[in-house]
Amino acid sequence: MNTKRENTIVKESVLEDGTTFYSYESAKEKFEQIRGKKFTVPDTILLLLYSQPEKPIHGRVLLVKQIFLLIEEILNKNDVQDAKFVPYRYGMYSFIVGNAITNLEFSGYVERRGKKNTKLEQFRITDKGRKYISEVFMSLPRNSQKKIREKRKGWDQLGYDGILRLVYQKYPEFKKESRIRERYETIKWGRGTG
Fold first, then answer.
1. Which is nearest to 113 in space by CA: 126, 128, 98, 124?
2. Is 91 left (phi over 0), alpha (psi -120 to 50) or beta?
3. Is residue 66 a contact partner of residue 56, using CB atoms and an 8 Å limit?
4. Minimal CA–CA distance to 48: which of 75, 17, 87?
5. For residue 5, pLDDT beyond 50
6. pLDDT tens digits, residue range 116-126?
7. Number of separate helices (H) and strands (E) present in the chain
8. Cβ within 8 Å of residue 167, ≥6 positions away
9. Which of 92-101, 103-112, 155-164, 169-178 has the highest mean pLDDT?
10. What is the DSSP secondary structure assignment for residue 172, as one 8-state letter?
């Protein structure tokens, strides 16, 4: 006797008391709809500054590029609020990140010294910022904490020209509006004709 059983998947069922049961697929869809982002843009700024708290980042351009790299290369960008990076005067820029930096400074989480919008400008995390973000940083897996610290150190060592060369090389789509893109032409590796 070969009876064919229909494979009907019930998306949800409701009991008399109002309790709703969902299928796995339906529950997954619901979860994705309500799931929030793990990190805000201000969190990413504070995470970056917290990774080397004694060492300031020199210049807003350098800070914005490091935030971009942190989101793209270390943190899962699906877990971070969309910073809406766009091609701009010096490569990728985010007005959301720019506003977040200003707000963090105003709120006392970040300290800014030096002449504004120059390479002499310095950004560092304050004690208030450390207290706020330390728990978030420590909740990251140890390998992520280590990677953020190492990358931050490397990015700082690259300096202004090095970080611009790096981001223009790896993310050329953000180079098109740059005022200084000619200084950072892409190096094409290959065999010469010599």
1. 124
2. left
3. no
4. 75
5. no
6. 877 788 999 99
7. 6, 7
8. 65, 68, 69, 91, 92, 174
9. 103-112
10. G
Number of neighbours of residue 186 by Cβ within 10 angstroms: 11
In 57-141, where does DSSP find H-type helix? 60-69, 95-107, 127-139
Angle between helices 41-51 and 142-170 (to 10 degrees): 100
Domain boundaries, the chain: 41-178
Q: What is the pLDDT of residues 11-55, one digit of tens each?
A: 777 777 777 777 888 877 766 654 566 889 999 999 999 999 999
**Pair of tokens at residue 97:** 């990140």
Q: Distance (Å, rounded) from C-alpha 66 to C-alpha 64?
A: 5
What topology is assigned to 41-178 in CATH? Arc Repressor Mutant, subunit A (1.10.10)
- What residues form DSSP beta bridges with 4? none
Provide long-range contacts, Cβ within 8 A and 24+ apart, for 155-159.
155/62, 155/65, 155/66, 155/69, 156/52, 156/55, 156/57, 159/62
DSSP 129-170: HHHHHHHHHHHS-HHHHHHHHHHHHHHHHHHHHHHHHHHHHH
